[in-house]
Amino acid sequence: MLIAASVSSGTIVLVGAVFLASCVETVEALTIVFAVGHTRGWRSAFEGSGVALVVLTALVAAFGPALVHVPLSALRLVVGGVLLIFGMQWLRKSILRATGLKAKHDEDAIYEQTVAELRAAGATSGRDRIAFVMAFKGVFLEGLEVIILVITLGTSAHRLGLAAAAAAVAVILVALGGVIVAKQLSNVPENALKMSVGVLLVTYGTFWTGEGLKVRWPGGDTMLLGLAAIYAVVSWAFVLAMRREASTPMTVTNA
Amino acid sequence: MSDATSVITRLIKGFGRFWWDFLVGDTPELFVAALVIIGVTALLSESGHFNAAAIVVLPVLAVLALATSLVRAVRLSRRK
Q: Which pTM was predicted?
């Protein structure tokens, strides 16, 4: 009871946003690594992934501590703006997917496409450069998104350690899940996760843009829950309204 | 020397492209909307008694931006 009372709504939203976003990005990275490993051998897949993780760690070590010295209101304004844009992009995509106007992010299709590309590249003797680059790119780009979210959300909330821990738990859980089922995690309800993350990112984006501009939110951090509820209801209303409208066949894209 | 320069140029280009795709990508309207939201909220929050207006305007503008982007996406998909 006391523990529950001491955990602020800001902490819950922070952990939820970082954890869910990290799950989604890890699923996407693992899909590529599995495709590389199954097609061209696990050695290059692990090497590419490992080097990407080292580069990401170096980036965090180089830029993470510097952010602590940026004035908090300026940091929150910039972070708020970035999260507002990024969150609205996620929300837009997941709403379009939920209404059938955009093809669902199909991990099976991505896996098959990656495998086809790798097979078309042909076999190589010695070190497999193509497999290495493919695994590196997959892990680096998805990992970079996780790191941006962890650093921006964590530093603005003064909870960098907590944000990093939430991301680490998500990455480990998804990676373990992937290893146990030994396939491309196509059963993860990615669109529902993305919509939840989109709601949380727009919530934080709105809140910190306001904080950065000296807006005094009623109830302080508690307003985060109110904003999240508003955006969740609005998103669901958009999905319902657009499903009703979408009676005519639409072009489906897979971006 | 020229090799090092080309590597640095490629890195800078790649860095710029990453942020462009990350923030603008295929939804420039959301990028512009975020700038408008920040501008309008900044103007309102400058005057203390407009704080209440800023609290309402910020999420309302975000919802309007999302709606506009969704309408644009629907129109584009119908045109294809």
A: 0.75
